[in-house]
Predict the structure.
Amino acid sequence: MTTSEKVVDLLNQAALIPTDEKLAVLKQVQELIINKDPSLLDNFLDELIAFQTDKSIEVRKFVIGFIEEACKRDNELLLRLIANLNMLLKDDSVNVAAPWTEETVRQCLFLYLSLLPLNHRLVHELASVYTEAIADIKRSVLRAIEQPIRGMGMNSPELLLLVENCPKGAETLVTRCLHILTDKVPPSPELVERVRDLYHKRVPDVRFLIPVINGLEKNEVIQALPKLIKLNPIVVKEVFNRLLGTQHSEGSSTVSPLTPGDLLIALHNIDSTKCDMKSIIKATNLCFGEKNVYTSEVLAVVMQQLMEQSPLPILLMRTVIQSLTMYPRLGGFVMNILSRLIVKQVWKYPKVWEGFVKCCQRTKPQSFSVLLQLPPAQLTSVFERCPEMREPLLQHVHSFTPHQQAHIPASIMAVLEADKKPEPKPVEPDETPPPSSQPEPAEEPMEESQPEPSDLQEPEKDVEADVTGPEAGSSSDDVE
């Protein structure tokens, strides 16, 4: 019996026997072909591939290993195998045409991918197959390429060439490859350069930049932020994980182009014409969610730098309030910020001014010393928004020593006492005032008077609508 006849006999047996025995028979086939006549694999390739539909994982793995070993010995066999698989994967009728089923196609795809380490050039064939494959096969490719691509590594010339050329229709495949390559290690300069060129010259999809974002320059990242933070929240979270250094978990050292403070400041400075305020607020909330990264020291530096900008960022006071809520010990620092904002005439920035008033309301009585630094017109504005603050502030001033009270301008005292109206002294019905009496006591201000009903009303809610606390999921109404 010839070797070919023995192989036919063994393959027929393998098709009919249980899994345990099947593996032993296939090993005999491998020994005959590899050791006696490698050319036979070309003749029986289709029969061997058919075992990829076997229920046994061990059998499927064995067949893949068998074909890999044969392809190492015969490059022409590899090319023929690839050609066959290309035709199979591009055929949209394989879902129903016997004997090939969708499962058969998937198994052949795994076989195809297992050959990538043997010949990196196959990645271009894979991209070509991907662009023409049906949707189900595309999804299978994206799920199955992790190990082969990771094995090739980001320094593979063929992978770099794939990124550089990025065939039309293969953008998702290339992006998936980039994520796999940079999942645990920082991107190489060569990979960054090719992605940068692809983004600027051919495919301006900001998602290409995410896997290599830590390899970009600081100004490049800042320019991309308006587009990045408008992506799916899960994607934005991944971007921030990479930038804040919480992405890599295997001890690899990665240096972000932005410090945590740089990132938060950059978010405040995004042009509202390029990105909606709701997305910006959600992005800042992500930063505040990383308490291990955004320490009180980091936030103090951020507030200091934002306060020194001109014009003042719209979200400045929102960040001040969130920082104070997260770290109450920053109270003294925040009072200093508020005092500095008075010097910068914060009332000229309506949104920031509303936040300023809200912050003073939340931090009373600590903020009383700040309120007394306001000009009379602006202090009046505070009381118009928060009338319930007038009386406590007046009582605070009354608690001063005479020397301290002497330093309070008369114009400020006039604002504080503006609602203190004299009340007439009640006249007893059985008494007649003597004609020579002094002027009615009612004409003199009483030592204590009750506030008018308007003083007891609740503070207006428009302030709350514009500047909120650090609650997650704030909507665009918070700043509009």
Remarks:
- The two ends are 87 Å apart (CA to CA).
